[in-house]
Structure formats: structure tokens, C-alpha cells
Amino acid sequence: MLLSAQNIVKRYGGVVALSDGNLNVSSGEVVALVGANGSGKSTLSKIINGVVVLDGGQLLLDGAPAEFASPQAARKMGIATVFQELSLVPQMSIAENIWLTREPLHANGMVNHKEVLARTERLLKLFEGTFKTALTPDVSVNSLQPDEKQIIEILKAVSTDPRILILDEATASLDSRQVSRLFELVAEWKKAGKAIIFVSHRMEEIFRIADTYTVLRNGKTVGSGVIKEVTEKELVNLMIEQASVFSHARQNRLSARELAQKPVYLSVKDLTTDVLRGVNLEVHQGELLGLGGLMGQGQRELLRAIFGYIQYQGRINIQGREVFYRHPADAIKDGTAFVPGDRGKEGLLYIRSILENILLPSWKEFGVPLRMRKAHQSAAVVGKSLNLKMAGLDEPVSSLSGGNAQKVVIGKWLKRKPQLLLLDDPTKGVDVGTKAEFYKLLANLCDEGKTIIFYSSDDEELVGLCDRILVMHDGVIRTSLIDKMITKRNLVAASLGASEEEQHE
Fold first, then answer.
1. DSSP for 345-396?
2. Omega before residue 369 within 30° of 0, cis
């Protein structure tokens, strides 16, 4: 046994990310770490690689207690990670990224550039023939395609010659040829005695590469064993909570027949971006359409493309007329609103007041010079309608709790009475009480004829709320769930790439 994580606990405030996480990996072994959204896979991986400090339990390395206060500390002990969120510096070259802070030096302490280039060329040869264009060490990372960046991330981790390598969704951006080459390398690393922790949403890859498996559910390890002794169905059943109760389930959801009778508000045809690979969908007026699947499968890119936030190819029709939004301002004028999950970066101006944030898209309504009394009255109506708990509209929005801050993000758009709402994981980091209010608000908006596209990383949320769920996988819509097909088991199975036969069963 090379590494053992025992009874790991991690809390973020009142949220328990891990309550009893366990994982064992031996030299020369690939262990698949699997689980549904929010199960604790990423948190456990981050504890092992030193990004996050555990609150309870212990790590054993070679049988001795170990705790890593930083990724650098973990790296010194032979642990490297290929992150799902790339850690590359865009403005630097491939060589500079791979050897950053670890550059080979001359005897006088200066960087040995010749050795840097030679070592980088040797690493690039590991994936020779899988790049669309020949890569050299001096190429800027900024100019690379997503798959090429992912490979550089892999090479960066491998350059440390680790004993334990964590591959966190490392194949998500790779094509089949690149995945095959990676798996050839994994087989070589196994023979050399390295331990591999393989985090993936792709069932086919899990059964292809892993020797053992460990399943997390709701922050607990609920199963482990030899991969040849388990089936897809058994793995999926371990990942979901059989007796799960959806306390927030929406009443009077629309059936397939009722949806078919409603006019189509939005249609998307062959929508293509760097991530999306020809998405087609229709959303009916008054429908609450869910976007499911594991994170990073194109859900956010789909919402941003519809909102004019990122460039796309393909066709978008609103109520039968073709539109092309070059900028979010075009979408806003056309009655579309976008509510991001990352309110800190995309939703709020934290140093400004609650008033200013609520009225951010609507200041033109109040003339020049601004009619501040009317602005206050208008913002107060929004705050009251959302039960916003605050000391006053002139207080900074940073003074609000997470749930109330998210209400401001939603409220600023409701003020404009949009016809189409694009919601990007809007309840992430929001307390239970605020979530309940938000669910009721969504139901009321649908009853009023508003159209909503709702991405959530919470599978239960999607199952409890949506009229229909489109499950995305690798930038395409893999499965459509409606009526009795909307179950957590079906959603998880489709998200993990289970076979069509398994899903139907």
C-alpha cells in the first residue's frame, strides 16, 4: 500500500464536503475514483495533493502519517496532479510552464536554457503524432488548442517523476487517439511501480484502464473493489442514494404532451464552439429545461453562447426569428437574462452598494440626471419581492450573506422582466432556506410563461424541478429525460456515459 486516505473529513463552514472519505492505492495500480456531482471526489483529490487541508482523519504514505500543507509539499513526497482546471500560465511558453520554479540551473545559479529545451522536447515526444500541429518548447500556451493545453498539463505533472499521479478528468479535452496514447503511457507507468488515481466520468475509460475502484457518495466512501468484479449498473447504483427524497420537487410539472402543445420559444441548431460539438435543442414557452451531466461537459458554454458571451457557429431562433447576438447587450435588449453561479467574478460589483447592483442593467430608466428617489423605490420593490435580508440599500453588497447576495444577482434581471432566463448553477453556495425561496420563484416564473434553461451541478435539484432534462456529455446532448424517465438513476447513468441498453433498463 503506497497511499491510504482514512476517514477523511472536510468542512467548508456549515457545508460538509467529506464526512468519511477513504481511498487506498498501491504501487503499480490504477484506482478509479468515481461518484456523482458533489460526492467529494475533487475535495479528496485536493487533500491528497496538498491544495486543501483536511479537518479530520489521516493520510498514510508508505504506512506513515503524512499531511501536506501545500502542493509543493505533496510534490516533494512524490505526488503530482493533472488538474481539471488547467494551471498553465497563458503568456508563457510550453517549456516555461512545465519547468516553472523547477528550472535546471547552471553551477552559477543561472537557468540552463539548453537543458530546459532538451527536457521539454523529450516530454513532447511522449505524445508525438497526436498533436494537430508539431509543437516546440518555445510555443506560447496561449496559442494552443484545448486538447494541446491538457497534454501540456499532463506533461507538467509527469516532469516531476511522481510516485503517485492523480488524473482529475484528464481525458475530458482529449480525442480518442490522445486518450489511447495516454493509456499506453499509464500502462508503462504502472510497470515502473507508479500509483495512478484516475478520476473520470467516462464509464468506458474506467473499465478500460482501472484495476480497482472507489465510490464516493455524499462525502462518504460507499464501496470499493476490483473493477473486473463489478458492472456498470452496480457502480451507478452505488453512486446514487436509493431512498433520496426530493423535498423541493416542483408541483404540476409539464408532461411531454403538454410541452408539445406549447409554442417553441427558443431553438438552437448545430451550435458549435471550442467545446460544443453541434448542439441542437428546442425550449417551449413556460418550460423549465434542465441541463444535466457532470461538470465541464459544455453546459456553461451553451448558456454563454446563447447569451452572446462567447463566439459560436450555428443558428439561434427566438420565437421563429433568427438572431445573432454579437454581445450580451444584444441578448439583454431582446429579453434574455443570464444568472451566473460565480457571483463574485460575473454577477456582482462587491465594492458597490446593493442599490447599484440591483439596478446595474437598468440605470437608463432613471434619466440624466438620475432620479435617485425613484431608483430607491424601484430597488426596494425588488428587495421586498425576494425577501432580501439587508441593513439598507446603500450598504455594500459584500455585507450580505451568500444567499442574499445571489438574490441580488437574480433580482437585477427580474427587474427587467426577461422572457428567457439562462441560469448557470445559481444555487451553488446558497443556504437551504434561500434555495426553497428560489425554487418557488422559478415555478412562479414558469406559470407566468417565462422560459428557463437551468444548469445545476446538483442532480437532485434538476430531478426535483425540471420539466425536461437534457444530459450533456463531451459537448453534445447525449440523452433527453422527460416524464417518468426523470430519475436520479437515469441522470447519473447518462452523465457517466453508460450504454444505451443500461439507461433503458
1. III--TTSBHHHHHTTTTGGGGTTTT-HHHHHHHHHHHHHHTT---S-TTSB
2. yes
Spell out the domain ranges in the chain: 3-239, 246-335+418-505, 348-417
* Cα–Cα distance measured from residue 26 to residue 267, given in angstroms and rounded to the nearest whole number: 50
Nearest residue to 163 via CA among 292, 68, 77: 77
Q: What is the pairing mode between strands 288-292 and 451-455?
A: parallel
Please name the residue that has the C-alpha cell 510555443: 139
CATH number for 246-335+418-505 (one of 3.30.70.1230, 3.40.50.720, 3.40.50.300, 3.40.190.150): it is 3.40.50.300
Q: Is the pLDDT of residue 410 over 70?
A: yes
Q: Are 6 and 66 in contact, with CB atoms under 8 Å apart?
A: no
Q: Looking at residues 96-112, what average pLDDT do you find?
A: 93
pLDDT tops 80 at residue 275: yes
Map 219-231 to HEC letters: CEEEEEEEHHHCC
> Cβ contacts of residue 125 below 8 Å, gap of 6+?
none
Cβ atoms of residues 492 and 460 within 8 Å: no
State how far the Cα of 206 lies from the Cα of 198, in Å rounded to an integer. 8
| Mean pLDDT rounded to a whole number for the chain | 88
Architecture of the domain defined by 3-239: 3-Layer(aba) Sandwich (3.40)
> If you write DSSP's letter for every residue of 236-281 in order, what string do you get?
HHHHS-TT---TTPPSSPPPHHHHHHSPEEEEEEEEE-SS-EEEEE
List pLDDT tens digits, range 159-196: 999 999 999 888 877 877 899 999 999 999 999 999 99
Tell me, rounded to whole angstroms, the distance of Cα 210 from its chain centroid.
Answer: 23
- Give the Cβ contact number of residue 241 at 10 Å: 12
By the 8 A CB rule, do 336 and 124 touch?
no
pLDDT band per the 50, 70, 90 thresholds, residue 244: very low
